[in-house]
Amino acid sequence: MRKTVQHLKVIANLRLNDDHHILVLQSADKLEQIHPGQFANLLVENSSTVFLRRPFSIYSVDYAQNTISIYIKIIGEGTRALSKAVVGSEIDTMFPLGNKFTLPTEKEKVLLVGGGSGVASLKSLAQSLHEKSNEVAILIGARSSKDLVELDEFSKYGTVYTTTEDGTQGVKGYVTNHPVLELELSTFQRVYSCGPEPMMKAVAKKAKEKSIFCELSLENTMACGFGVCLCCITTTIDGHKCVCTEGPVFNINILKWEI
Amino acid sequence: MGDLTVSIHNLKLKNPVLTASGTFGYGLEYDDFMDVSLLGGIVVKGTTIHPRQGNDYPRMAETASGMLNSVGLQNKGAKYFATDIYPNLLKYDTNILVNVSGSTIEEYIACAEIINELDHIPGIELNISCPNVKEGGMAFGTSCASIEAVVSAVRKVYHKTMVVKLSPNVTDIGELARSAEASGADSLSLINTLMAMAIDAERRKPILSTITGGLSGPAVKPIALRQVWEVAKSVKVPIIGMGGIMNATDAIEFFLAGASAIQVGTANYLDPMITLKIIDGIDDYLNRHKFSSINDIIGGLQV
After folding, report:
1. CATH 3.50.50.60 fits B6-53+72-195+216-296, yes or no
2. DSSP 8-state code for residue A187
3. Does residue A60 form part of some domain?
4. For residue B265, which of B90, B47, B20 has the smallest C-alpha distance?
5. Distance from the A78 Cα atom to the nearest Cα atom in chain B, whole angstroms
6. Number of compact structural domains in chain A
7. Per-residue confidence of chain B (303 residues) as pLDDT tens digits?
8. In whole angstroms, what is the distance from residue A145 CA to residue A76 CA?
9. Which of B77, B63, B78, B173 is nearest to B129 (CA)?
10. CA–CA–CA angle B258, B264, B268 (5° rounding)
């Protein structure tokens, strides 16, 4: 689907807990294909402190209802304002933006590693992988059990493993402490990850050591979302690339990360 | 519909709305959103003779009613522009200006010479006001002597419309504007971004990798209006005003202050179709106030 700016109608605002919401936004037009990994840039209106749009992964797409859903973790004024969106109101939305995750062409055993709000970019990927009969495992890390939301959704598409920093659910520690990454990584043919940069670097390091295909979805701050401000760059073997148009998904072999 | 056509030296603009360099890519990035040919003109990304990687990440900080950037003229160089980008721009029926920058006068000259050969580029915007490069850029735009040196040198090799983009980071912009005019500028555009900084108190670190950057957005509009007004009183060449224009009313304010055309910058990030809405809004204003032409309000501030 080509990039567009539309006033999408809020048809649901699902409060998962104190600081996690899912907004379901409906287009008046028929949605064309949106790929796992793509994102939307939402305008926060009537805010005295928020100036720029806020980018979010497209959490899921319903082509029958012409809706996209956006997973919002409240981290600042922009996300707080959006989390209060009223059903029936409209949100000025630029979408779909960015490239996409590369899916295997044959059935593979794949691992998805999400941390914090980074899980938002992995659900539609898990769904696509599952629909194409890949064997999917999903490892989700969070600070605490209250930050682990939507696990039932993820479990529809594969085996879900969890870690929490405080040990309130799953394995205590970081995702990198989980046996599936520590011990079983070489059983996977592909790893995808999205989350805090230190986590993605740790995942990338392990994948690189074992020469496993690995793609990451980056979350650099951006002003435009469509490749003109050149603010969200990341350093690659081919020079600076825009996370918004040449990403957000990058293969670890392209990134010039010190890992 | 009022008459929206304006002239900037030899350029005939179908309307007075252009896009500011660095906020509109090469126009091509906007094809999904709008018909770029409806604009009075576009000023494409700052171009230098040699490819530039630009500054390190982070390059952007959101601020109250605006943002800072420190991109640092990332571009693939004038030759790449001429061979790989320019052919894709021939489809546009609008004035395409190239923003030309450099670290030395020789680099400005070399870049302008390449752009001068491109038939469908009727003008350049000489960028002597970029605050985000260590050498050149703004350094050329903050003294009369250096303005005279670079503008007159490029004037000798560039034979089409030459707009000179002024820096707001100066004490007497009228004096510098007169230097640019006397050195051969056909038009002046202003303002470039204001030198500024943002600090992350929690980490006790600057947000930008370069520590300082350029402020843009509605926060700078009052400064831009004041400087456009001062320059309009100081020179005879037409002025292209910019700085925080978010809507048609903002644009009208710049015309009243003395600008013959305007550029829209940061607002393009928030709404890629904003320029078309501004064109419509300018027309509405003319109709509402019963002006037959945009030229009737240029410099029309009643003081």
Report:
1. no
2. G
3. yes
4. B20
5. 12
6. 2
7. 789 999 999 999 999 999 999 999 999 999 999 999 999 999 999 999 999 999 999 999 999 999 999 999 999 999 999 999 999 999 999 999 999 999 999 999 999 999 999 999 999 999 998 877 777 777 899 999 999 999 999 999 999 999 999 999 999 999 999 999 999 999 999 999 999 999 999 999 999 999 999 999 999 999 999 999 999 999 999 999 999 999 999 999 999 999 999 999 999 999 999 999 999 999 999 999 999 999 999 999 999
8. 21
9. B173
10. 165
How far is B260 from B246, CA to CA, in rounded Å?
A: 17
Which chain A residues have any C-beta within 8 angstroms of a chain B C-beta?
2-5, 43, 48-53, 92, 94, 220-235, 239-240, 245
> Which residue in this structure is represented by tokens 């469908």?
B120
With respect to residue A141, please indicate whether it lies within any of the assigned structural domains. yes
Nearest to B24 among A228, A234, A245 (CB): A228
Same domain, A242 and A139: yes
Give the range of the structural domain holding residue A46, as residue numbers without chain letter.
4-96
Q: Answer whether A221 sits within 8 Å of B58, measured CB to CB.
A: yes
Residue type, A190: R
- Rounded to a whole number of angstroms, the distance from the CA of B282 to the nearest CA of chain A is 22
Closest CA to B272 of A94, A248, A231, A1: A94
> Which of B145, B138, B139 is closest to B182 using CA atoms?
B145
Give yes or no: residues A32 and A81 share one domain: yes
Give the chain A residue whose CA is nearest to the CA of B219: A51
Question: How is chain B split into domains, by residue range?
Answer: 6-53+72-195+216-296
**What residue in B sits closest to A1 (Cα-Cα)?**
B32
CATH of the domain at A84: 2.40.30.10
- HEC per residue, A216-230: EECCCCCCCCCCCCC
Q: Closest-CA residue in chain A for B208?
A: A231
* CATH code of residue A156: 3.40.50.80
- Residue B219 has φ and ψ, to the nearest 5°, of -60, -30
> Which chain A residues touch B48 with a CB distance below 8 Å?
none
Q: In angstroms, what separates the C-alpha of B226 from chain A's closest C-alpha?
A: 23
Contact yes or no for B29 and A5 at CB 8 A: no
Amino acid, single-letter form, for residue B160 = K
Is residue A102 included in any domain, yes or no?
A: no
Q: Are residues A129 and A233 in the same domain?
A: yes
Residue A169, in any domain of the structure: yes
Q: Is B144 tagged catalytic?
A: no
